[in-house]
Amino acid sequence: MTRPRFHLSGPARSRRPLVVAVLLLVALVATGCVRFPAPDAPPPTATAGPLVLPGVQTDVPVEPPPSSEACNATLTLRPPAQMPAPGRMPPNSTMAGIFERGRLIVGLDIGSNLFSFRDPISGDIEGFDVDIAREIAGAIFGDPNRVEFQVLSSAQRIDALRDKTVDVVIKTMSITCDRLRDISFSAPYYVASQRILSFRNSNIVGPSQLADKRVCAARGTTSIGRMQSIQPRVRIVSTTTWADCLVLMQQGQVDAVTSDDAILAGLAAQDPWVRVVGPSLGEEFYGVGIPKGEDDMVRFVNGVLERARATGRWQQIRDRWLTILDSGFGAPQPYYRD
């Protein structure tokens, strides 16, 4: 398990995400960590050579596709009729325990550009998911910066919630019926569409061109099973982070990446030779992961999200980080089961 990393930062910078991505790109190129092909050169060809990144698994066995939503996975608990004031959490509640500790522990990663990444200039962890975490911290403490970020891989998210080493996971985590057996979720805070990232001058424009091609996805995500069900001849390569997928693509070790459009947009912002292509392969509803049995925390987080929608704060967060996407679903509407 990755050791917790404590991070308290000052007010969020106003710089545009694209500037951050460009600065990061320049730094990487200067150190020789990333190499781009010439604009007119053909895309790298995937090879069977050794993969130098740690944690890479080639030819991932077939995984089941995401379960149908017969369980109405996005149905959630209604928020309190009146939210408690910051610093005045209900006695003996999950939120009171977090307040007494003095910080909210949030599981995320730093390899999902635009959603959660480390600013190369300030060193701060920033992004859409980070701002959602700060909204929750602000509602508990009255201070959005009282957050400790614990860096997790996609495969570690559920275990971290079951072990209660984190209070919540906010890491582009899709709400699914399978995951609801082990953890709880808030109402959706973002809706994404799974798509494909390919080189601009390749002929890959959809899943039909991925037969016998190597396609990268982060381990422990729903993207793998869905792609295998749509294109049975795909050869999945899994990595620990989405940033690793981009590196493998740049090295010519894989032909494409598949994930949610928001994640792929973050990768595309770092490399001018790649693009997001193809139709939607399925919608994903991101939710805040919460330990099973902490229904008071589910209701509280839902109240935070409800207020963010009503006040326009959600739209402000989206406008700050996701303007690179040419379309969007807007703030998802919650559906309560009680």
- Strand percentage: 15-25%
Any guess at the CATH architecture of the largest domain?
3-Layer(aba) Sandwich
CATH topology of the largest domain: D-Maltodextrin-Binding Protein, domain 2
Biggest sheet features: 6 strands, mixed
Q: Number of helix segments?
A: 9
User: Fraction of residues in helices?
Assistant: 25-40%
Mean pLDDT, rounded to whole units? 86
Poorly predicted residue ranges: 1-39
CATH-defined superfamily of the largest domain: Periplasmic binding protein-like II
Number of strands: 14
Q: Tell me the series of helices and strands, N- to C-terminal.
A: HEHEEEEHEHEEEHEHEHEEHHE
How large is the radius of gyration? 20 Å
N- and C-termini, Cα separation:
36 Å
Q: How many distinct folded domains?
A: 2
Indicate the structural class: alpha/beta
Gross geometry:
globular
The top-level CATH class of the largest domain is Alpha Beta
